[in-house]
Design brief:
Blueprint: E1 3-7, E2 10-13, E3 18-25, E4 33-39, E5 46-52, E6 58-60, E7 68-73, E8 78-83, E9 92-99, H1 103-106, E10 114-117, E11 121-126
Parallel strand pairs: 2-11
Antiparallel strand pairs: 1-3, 3-8, 4-5, 4-9, 5-6, 7-8, 9-10, 9-11
Length: about 130
């Protein structure tokens, strides 16, 4: 069974950077997409960024574009989310997700297109 394990969260001040990692084990998402979502208290889970398994195409939510970078290391079966210029409104639990084989029928920004999820890692940005 495929497992996704996130790491790298923490408490930082506004303006700082963090890099989240998502290690995939027990399988791959070849031909699909890896996504990052986040959920703040009392808010719905929202799309942050995504990348094709091959690493050739990326997508970003408008509020993080230019600050966050999603990337993938094939050799390590790991997806990263580099988060720069963090803001208090970035505070949330961050989840990585592996896309279903037909994810493009949903679009990479829709949670319904993902069939595997990690346990989440907390990011807290203080002002």
């Amino acid at each position: 069974q495929v497992q996704l394990v996130e790491s790298g969260g923490g408490l930082v001040q506004a303006g700082a950077s963090l890099r989240l990692s998502c290690e995939v084990s027990g399988g791959t998402f070849a031909g699909s997409v890896m996504g990052w979502f986040r959920q703040a208290p009392r808010k719905e889970r929202e799309f942050v960024a995504a990348i094709t398994w091959g690493g050739t195409t990326t997508w970003y939510q408008s509020s993080v574009k230019g600050r966050f970078i999603v990337s993938r290391d094939k050799a390590k079966n790991t997806v990263y989310l580099q988060m720069n210029s963090l803001k208090p409104e970035d505070t949330a639990a961050y989840y990585c997700a592996g896309g279903k084989s037909d994810i493009m029928a949903y679009g990479p920004a829709r949670a319904a297109g993902y069939g595997a999820w990690g346990q989440g890692t907390q990011v807290t940005v203080s002002s």
